Fold this protein.
Amino acid sequence: MPQKKDISRRRYLKLLVQGGGLALALGAGGGLTSPEPAIVNGQAAPFGLPLAGAPGAESWFVRQWYGNTRWAYRQRRALYSQGQGMHFGVDFFSTCGTPVVAIGDGTILAIDGPYGSAPHNVLVKHANGLVSLYGHLLERSTLRIGQVVKQGEAIGKLGAPTGADCDTHPHVHLEIREASLGGTRNPVKLITTDWANLTLGATGEGLQFQVDLNQPSRWQTIFDQPDVRFGGPLLNDYERSWP
Amino acid sequence: MELLLLLLILTACSDASPTAPPDTSTTGAAIQTTQLTPAIPAPATSNIAPTTEIAATPVAPVSSTAIPATTAAPVSSPIIANTAVIATTGETTLPPTTAPTTTASAAATAWKALGGANCCQNFSFGGDGRLVYYDQPPGETRLGSWAFDLKSGQRTFLNSGLANYSADLSLAAISSRQDGNTRLQNVPDGTPLGTLANSGSRTVFAPDKKQVAYLLRTTQQDGPEAPQRFSLVVSTLDGRAPRSVWTGRETANLSWLADSQHLLLTGRDAANSRFGLWVIGLDGSANLIVESKGLTVATLSGDGQWVAYIITLQGAERSGVWLAHIDGSAALKQSWLGGFRWDSGHNLYYLPVRQPGETASSLWKLDPVSGKAVRLTDPARFPLQIALDQWEFSPGGTAMAFRNGVDNALWLLTF
């Protein structure tokens, strides 16, 4: 068992004892953040969010999770065919023009490169070897390749896949790619935040997971989603599924 | 003694997977349950994002170890210790955005786990109060849809698919994207009624059980990220005469009104020029009862007289949760933001998003007629953390099934 978990358990027990009495620890943050955040170069959940300020109905919220979402299943042979049928990022909805900020310190690796998420995208390379991608930006970023950015620094403006008219689904599509850019990892496990609160209690195709009726318990939480290898076989071409 | 205490706590914390007592049920008995006394949560951290150490903490949500009854819940819960006193009775004319510091009106009496992590997909309550879900329960060889009677503990196999049901669970619509059809059938004897060539779209029974409706996604001529085009189709149960009664874009949240002659949905018209909440008549009428481009979630009350909906990204004044009559009149923005459900009447249950410093949610019930809201759970006793907005109320409001964010298992909260 990782040392990190052992340390956490000791602290947790200490908290319980300090709380007095015999308590069944049902809660205390479990489920709010990743129960097992990914460790990158010894640092757990090293990144922040791509939008500043508090989530809210008038500001921003999460509308699609990473992985085996219902929307991704519907688009598995089209929009996400190169991503093994998975939604290989997290979608944060907001109004067009909202500043998108870097999730961690790094350098600009690419601007409007061939990495999808039209009409504009930015890639930031981080010291831990991972690369963050910010997609569907409203306009070409004014930054330049090689420029150093700090966590929380604006790297572009939020846009929509449909273009500058921002007619449908204005959002930033956040991906966290491996250094090779050939695969993605689940941002939910790499960002420490209160994920469950970021949907504002709403639901939708992007916030629920497709059920493989032959393996109904697989990939049904926001934390338990597969890494994606671009160009690999579909992971969700289920024989029987719901919905 | 201290050693014993630590041992007991270690036992409670050492099993990361939810456990349940051995299945002692007889044939046809209930899915496994673990009865718990209300738990005292561990002290809350001081901000939303726990430290890395806390985030990595293995949480043992359910233990098979017998847990003695806890002492009284803390008078001042650390979860809400920093909130101002807003109400002392738990009953207000408008729900506060933050929970009262008192524990009055904690109407919930018990909760228990039903099955293990990730079990029981697509759970919902039938009109007869049975809980329906898709699973292969312990000790069963069949994977499929089951109906679970909360009172008797009897479990009944419905079919091998995952279906939408009529309110009384007598009819099933089993959709399959693979073969592109939806099969309609009687549940008790499995008699087929008809087949709909509807691409496996979610199919909803009218209250009179004589018709079904579904949203058929049409050709995506504009690309997958462009506004999706839909046709609202209504059919008799034999599937022989499906007819389109409306076409639009970005359409969702389909439900029948009580008269079986009108349907409620959200979306845009075919011209992509009018957006919001629509009531569509089988006679071809289409009324935009709430106009907003940011309206994407809406649900109809059980009695069909009220509608709750969410508007997003339309400015501070318009964005939020709203409640209105079914004709769109008397729309009132709520002071809370969060998920909501209706019971079989017109009571609205809602779970406000947590405020800074809170680690669990409170459940509220709102009577839209009187405008009074009552808090049903005290987060100090029932630290609700619901995953993926998966929670459903029984028809009489006596129980709530929910996906627990701690262990991702199905839980039942009773009142």
